[in-house]
Write a structure and sequence with these properties.
Length: 169
């Protein structure tokens, strides 16, 4: 099933999501639906709050279907190590049409659980590091615009409000 993507302005995107405790068939179905929804929206990462489900699960595929091995499911992830810094353009399916330069760590290690509840560690650099951080942020109720200057953030919010008024958001 393909879910519509929740856009910025919906409070579900700005509250911490609930820990997942049941590693059952329903969770596996949710992960499948999240990959389908992410690919349909042309994204390389998606967190459950972005489809209106306030639970700590995110999916990532920075190869966008090219490498099936690159599909990552993170349940209850936490960032356990970061190193370096890199500034790059970043966007979010919940803020369509917008992109900003965001500085983040270059290398990241995340500890999470897989769909069976087993503890895993995933390390990545550059785009994958960015995706691991971006999606974990979502589960903590944070968006990439929390990492840009207040001035740029206000400008972006003003543009979003204008789009909302025009019924284009
Ligand atoms: Zn996002």
């Amino acid at each position: 099933m393909i879910y519509p993507i929740v856009k910025f302005g919906d409070p579900v995107l700005e509250k911490p999501a609930a820990a997942i405790e049941n590693f059952d068939q329903e969770l596996r179905k949710l992960a499948d639906d999240m990959f389908d929804s992410m690919y349909a929206a042309h994204g390389v990462g998606l967190a459950a709050p972005q489809i209106g489900i306030s639970k700590r699960i995110a999916v990532i595929d920075v190869t966008f279907k090219e490498d099936p091995e690159a599909k990552i499911v993170l349940v209850n992830p936490e960032i356990i190590h970061t190193e370096g810094r890199i500034t790059s353009d970043e966007g979010c399916l919940s803020l369509p049409e917008f992109r900003e330069k965001v500085t983040r760590p270059r290398h990241v290690t995340v500890r999470a659980q897989d769909l069976e509840g087993k503890t895993i560690e995933v390390s990545g650099e550059e785009l994958l590091a960015r995706a691991l951080l971006h999606e974990t942020d979502h589960l903590n109720g944070k968006l990439y615009i929390n990492h840009i200057s207040a001035l740029k953030r206000d400008m972006l919010k003003r543009k979003v409000r204008k789009l909302m008024k025009q019924g284009e958001w």
